[in-house]
Amino acid sequence: MRAIDTLSMCFRNLIKRKLRTFLTLLGVMIGTGSIIIMISLGLATDAQFAQMIEDMNLNMTEIQVFPQWGGMMWTEDGMQEMNQRDITDESVERFMRIPGVRTATPMMNEQLLFRSGPYTMMASVTGVRPEALELMGYNLGYGRLLQEGGEFEAVFSIRSERGFFDASDGSWNSPRQWDTSDDVETLVDIHEDSIRIYYDTSQFWNTRDWGWGFGGMVDEDFGLDLEEDFAPLRSFEINIVGVIQPPEIELRWGGGTQIFMDIETLRLLNQMSDETQRRQREEDEWNPSFSAITSGPRQTYGDVRVRTYSMDDTAEVAEIIQEMGYQVWFPGEWINNQREMQRGMETLLAAIAAVSLVIAAINIANTMITSVTERTREIGVMKVIGASISDVRKLFLLESMVIGILGGVLGVGLALGISYAMNNFDIEFLNNLNMGAPIIANEGGGVVSLITPWLCGLALAVAGGIGLVSGYYPAWHATRLSALAAIRGD
Amino acid sequence: MGILFELKNVRKIYRMGTEKVIALDDVSLTFEKGKIYCLLGTSGSGKSTLLNLLAGLEKPTSGSIKFRGKALETLSEKQLTLYRQGYIGFVFQSYNLLPTLTALENVTLPLIFRRMPKRKRIAAARKMLKAVGLGNRWRHKPHELSGGQQQRVSLARAFVNEPQVIFADEPTGNLDTRTTYEMMDMITNMAREREQTLIIVTHDTEISQYADQIIRVRDGNIESITEGLGRGPSEEERNLENEKNNSNATGDAPVTDDSNTPSGEYE
After folding, report:
1. Does residue A214 register a pLDDT over 50?
2. Between A353 and A427, where is the model more confident?
3. What residue segments make up the domains of chain B, in order of their start?
4. What pLDDT was estimated at residue A129?
5. What is the CATH topology of the domain spanning B33-59+75-248?
6. Are residues A276 and A381 in the same domain?
7. What pLDDT, on the 0 to 100 scale, is given for residue A332?
């Protein structure tokens, strides 16, 4: 029998039993449709998580390491005495040696005073190891990143220079800093103007009488005489070698002002500042406040960033560092927890949907067995007039496979419809299912349900496969029928 | 004329639970090409079993059945399928047309199984339907045809693949007398025209007269082999029969309705 004839015969039989075919199709349609919907919810959540990671620059290979403070602490195992664990250069070296670690750098934040012409800026500068900056995953807008030995080099972010303000009127505040729009006219052009960093500024701060007024800190003397006030301070000119382009979401939240320098430079500045302050303290017994802040040369770090080669290693590396006695946090941890919760929910829903698919399969088998029983005589006649065993088998297998595929097609249609409805009408109940993620989804224009072409293809293949499997026994039964008994069977 | 079938000591035993039923005891027979045979016997005599063995639908318990020198019982299922496709045609008592197919499609069915291209098989089937006098009813589904018409479709189906032998199992069992003669005339004429061997199974002695050779089967054995007339009853005999029937049957219309149409027409 030719394939085309088998197919045509098969469709005739299905059409002949319209109602039964329709009801069986309905079962497959509901089964396939619900499976697709359940998987589509999972796909949408995954896409949302991926988008979230991208948006928030949550790099999955980053681990933040903090020192462990001593004392009693509440942990998973109850109250525990924790040993203090400082992060030193040696600890950073040890982190670097952990397998899977790409780089580790201490992070050091210092408030520094910048000046360019008549304009001033107080900014937090992050000190990192030059070679590590590249591996930290920052996107370079233009220029280059830090290099070894570039003590006077700095890397700005695209909005860093918005912090410059005119201090001559006494207001210590730059309104541009809080502007999150893209084009803001700044006072300083980082490409043209010379920018200096003033360090060892404790004397400068000490001699002024600070208070609070409208719009931030104000110098009660109202006005800053640049020449007079800055003249005694030590300074050096910095060379801005590159500018970082931060992710969009960070800019929306007012970020994009980070400044990076070599950690060694910051440490040196720190030491000199400490030196001055120590001298000052000896001169002036009556100023205890600063002595509390500056407690000797810094050899420990409050924050170290560790990067792994791949996100698969992150959890393992984090655990090793934790076992060394440090505190760790990594975005991967949070995301993984969220995902796991989500997966659990999805698996449950998919299992429920799978039940309807199993019922659909049983339904097909039932329909086909009825069909074989009903057509016993027909099968016998066909065998007598020349149908081969394989013709008979193909006829029934094809019939059940067609039911499966047609049901699958209807199921894909149903799923697309439901998916469209879910994405376009706010359904509170579904938002609750997708814990947490929909907030991001709504913000980023994401979807609750995501049906990809491969999902449709897979669903059709599964539906066809189910038809084939369900039809196997009935078809086998049909081939086993004795032609004679079938004809006589009245 | 050459020998078509050669049966030697054929024995067929059915197992019904723990009991054994001897359907055929010890049958040795030969069928020649181009002749018309009748297997005559009562129900349970073993005549149908003999037919099934010849058609390769069942295998003998012992003995051998040779078709043109080849032992049927040694053939594989696949070879038997080819044998049925290529050499035999089958006419059933209850027509056994496929209810989902039109008359034409039913006739093409054996050709479909032989993988004949569509155009060719439709031409062959239409020619065959014309030969049985249903040239204009090819589009009808079986349930739209009378019993006689259905049987003619089934006749066309049996002849369409130009078989060497036609088996007819009680072909007129569901037909009234007049249609029976029509059918028998048609089937025997067609077989003779095409020089095909026709083997008719019946319990009706009148019908057996159409055969060249009447083989009486009784309790699984051949009781006798006699010469038949090789034709149906003459015009006068038929008229006589009709009169007798009309007076007996209180003027009832001939039964063309068939309660025995193939099942499976429910949705």
Report:
1. no
2. A353
3. 33-59+75-248
4. 85
5. Rossmann fold (3.40.50)
6. no
7. 72
Residues A16 and A72 grouped into a single domain: no
Q: Do B101 and A391 touch (CB under 8 A)?
A: no
Cβ-based burial of A418 (10 A; exposed 0-12, middle 13-18, buried ≥19):
middle
Which pLDDT band, with edges at 50, 70 and 90, does A143 fall under?
confident
Given an 8 Å threshold on Cβ–Cβ distance, is B267 in contact with A490?
A: no
Contacts of B267 in chain A (CB under 8 A): 16-20
Residue A246 CA to residue A129 CA, distance in Å, equals 19
The pLDDT of residue A471: 93
pLDDT in tens, B47-94: 888 988 998 888 899 999 999 999 999 999 899 999 999 999 999 888
Please indicate, yes or no, whether residues A38 and A86 belong to a single structural domain of this protein. no
Pick the closest to residue A490 from A378, A370, A371 (CA basis): A378
What values do phi and psi take at A224, rounded to 5? -125, 120
CB contact under 8 A, B110 and A385: yes
Task: Evaluate whether A162 touches A254 at the Cβ level (below 8 Å).
Answer: no
CB contact under 8 A, A387 and B161: no
The whole-chain average pLDDT of chain B stands at 86
Q: How many whole angstroms separate alpha carbon A256 and alpha carbon B203?
A: 103
What is the residue range of A181's domain? 62-309
Q: What is the mean pLDDT of chain A?
A: 79
A1, A2, A385, A394: which to substitute to probe chain B, counting the most B Cβ within 10 Å? Answer: A385
Question: CB–CB of A132/A125 below 8 Å?
Answer: no
Helices and strands per DSSP (H, E), number in chain B: 8, 10
From the list A5, A16, A386, the residue facing B84 with the nearest CB is A386
| B107: CB partners within 8 A, 6+ apart | B125, B128, B129, B138, B153, B156, B157, B160
Q: In sequence order, which residues have a C-beta less than 8 Å from that of residue A455 and are 6 or more positions away?
A: A36, A39, A40, A43
In a shared domain, residues A264 and A149: yes
Q: Which tens digits make up the pLDDT trace of A77-112?
A: 677 777 788 888 888 888 989 998 888 888 888 888
pLDDT value, residue A392: 92
Residue A227 confidence (pLDDT): 59
Q: Structure tokens of B205?
A: 């002695």
